[in-house]
C-alpha cells in the first residue's frame, strides 16, 4: 500500500490535554451554583444550554464561558451576583491561557513522520483565535505544513478539505481521539482514520457504537503506534 500523501492530526486531547481543564472549570461552576440544586441538575442545565448555543457560538472556551453565565442566570432566576459572574469570566479566561504541553509521544511521532517526508496537518475545530493560540503555546507549529481550523468536523468539511489538498483515499490519514469528529466521518468517506483514545471525552463527542459498525479504521492505545501504521 502506498505511503500516505497527507497526515492530519486533531489538536485537543490528541496533541495536548484539553478536556480535563474544562472538567475542572465545570467542577468549580458546580461549587458556585451549589445553592441552586444538586450537581446533576446543574450539569443537565449546562449541557442543555451548551447544546443550544453551539449553533450560534460554535466550540471552545468562549462559547463555554457564555453558556456557564447563561446557566447561572437561569438557575438563579436572574439573581446571580456580579461577583459570581466575574468568577465565571475569570474561569473562562483561564481556559484561554493555560500552559500547553504536548502529550506523551507527540514530539517523537511528529519528528519521525517529518523525517520520513510526510506532509503534516493540524485539523481541529473550534474558535480560530483560541486554537491558533494553543498551537503557538504548544511549540509544535514548526512540525506542520498546514493548519486547518474549522467550525465543524463532518463529512462535508472533510470532503471540502480533501478536495482542496487533492488527497485520495490511499493518501490520507486522520489521527484523533474523537470517534465522532475524527473517525466516523472520515471512515464513512472511505479514507483512513486512526483512533487514539484519551481518558476524558466531552459529552458532546460521544457517538452511538452502532454508527461505527461495519466501518474500517485503526485503533491504537498509544500515539507512538501510529509509526507502525504509517511507513
TrEMBL record:
Hydrolase found in the keyword field: yes
One Pfam family recorded for the sequence: Hydrolase
Presence of keyword Hydrolase: yes
Record's keyword terms, sorted: Hydrolase
A GO molecular-function annotation: hydrolase activity
PANTHER family found in the cross-reference section: HAD FAMILY HYDROLASE (PTHR43316:SF8), HYDROLASE, HALOACID DELAHOGENASE-RELATED (PTHR43316)
The protein, known as: HAD family hydrolase
Biological source species: Hymenobacter metallicola
Organism phylogeny: Bacteria, Pseudomonadati, Bacteroidota, Cytophagia, Cytophagales
Amino acid at each position: 500500500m502506498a505511503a500516505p500523501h497527507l497526515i492530519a492530526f486533531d489538536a485537543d486531547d490528541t496533541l495536548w490535554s484539553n478536556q480535563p481543564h474544562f472538567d475542572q472549570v465545570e467542577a468549580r461552576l458546580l461549587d458556585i451554583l451549589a445553592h441552586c440544586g444538586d450537581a446533576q441538575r446543574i450539569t443537565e442545565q449546562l449541557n442543555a444550554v451548551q447544546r443550544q448555543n453551539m449553533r450560534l457560538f460554535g466550540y471552545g472556551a468562549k462559547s463555554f464561558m457564555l453558556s456557564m453565565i447563561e446557566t447561572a442566570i437561569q438557575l438563579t432566576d436572574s439573581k446571580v451576583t456580579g461577583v459570581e459572574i466575574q468568577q465565571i469570566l475569570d474561569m473562562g479566561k483561564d481556559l484561554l491561557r493555560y500552559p500547553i504541553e504536548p502529550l506523551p509521544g507527540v514530539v517523537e511521532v511528529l519528528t519521525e513522520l517529518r523525517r520520513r517526508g510526510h506532509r503534516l496537518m493540524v485539523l481541529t475545530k473550534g474558535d480560530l483565535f483560541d486554537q491558533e493560540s494553543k498551537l503557538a503555546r504548544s511549540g509544535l507549529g514548526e512540525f506542520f505544513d498546514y493548519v486547518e481550523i474549522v467550525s465543524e468536523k463532518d463529512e462535508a468539511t472533510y470532503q471540502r478539505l480533501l478536495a482542496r489538498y487533492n488527497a485520495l483515499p490511499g493518501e490520507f490519514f486522520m489521527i484523533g481521539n474523537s470517534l465522532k469528529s475524527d473517525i466516523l466521518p472520515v471512515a464513512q468517506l472511505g479514507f483512513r482514520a486512526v483512533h487514539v483514545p484519551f481518558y476524558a471525552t466531552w459529552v458532546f463527542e460521544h457517538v452511538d457504537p452502532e454508527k461505527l459498525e461495519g466501518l474500517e479504521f485503526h485503533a491504537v492505545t498509544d500515539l507512538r503506534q501510529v509509526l507502525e501504521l504509517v511507513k
